[in-house]
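REQUEST ID: PR-0412
SUBMITTED BY: lab tech R.K.
PRIORITY: routine
TASK: structure prediction, single protein chain
INPUT:
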Amino acid sequence: MKLEKVALTNKEAAQRAELTRAPKPKLASTIVLYTGPKDNPKILMGQRASRHDFMPSVYVFPGGRVDRVDSYAPYDGGLSSRTSAILESVYSPRRARACVLAAIRETYEETGLMLGQKTKWTKNLTNPSWDQFRQAGITPDLSRIEAFGRAITPSYRHKRFDTWFFIQKFDGNIQAVSDSHELLNVDWFTFDQIEDLKTHRATEMMLHVLKEYLAQDRPSPQIFFNHMVRGKFIQRMFP
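STATUS: complete
OUTPUT:
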């Protein structure tokens, strides 16, 4: 899979030009929710608003930055031994869970879906999104979420993220999604439908990785990893 530099918008190029050096990537995570059979699933995606200064107007999976508060969110179920081993090759167990919990929080903020189990919790995290989980009596469930990819934004961009990609089959009401100030036109799309959407090259790359992951009978103990070294994209298995 060969990747080349993606042309920046004028705004993106101007913001990068203001920097004297490449910014350090910030930890982020995203989750692919799918319904239906693995060979013909529907995938949850939404369109980033045009006002965004990072990849505006393209369709993406829900996700975003890992916040400090995510390290303290309650959770049900533990990560699978496979995903734990992958994440904990880099992070502490708490940080590894925070990475997955951030994807759950961002999914709620961007699509209205709460991924979890009906259990009460009283811990107050002084975070609006996690407080909505508490009020709804929903505790995030990590047990069915698996890692399948990782990508670091190249150094020629003004914003950089070290993004982990997770996947979970969604068994709830697929109609119960909504737009947000972050994502518009939120809906479930087949692979064929996604081909007609405006997507970023990085998303197209991960969709290819996703197809390969779904075709496996048993997930590999390693995940796809894309990053740039000395101006060239490197793709390898991790860890």
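NOTES: Residues 147 and 233 are 21 Å apart (CA to CA).
REVIEWED BY: pending
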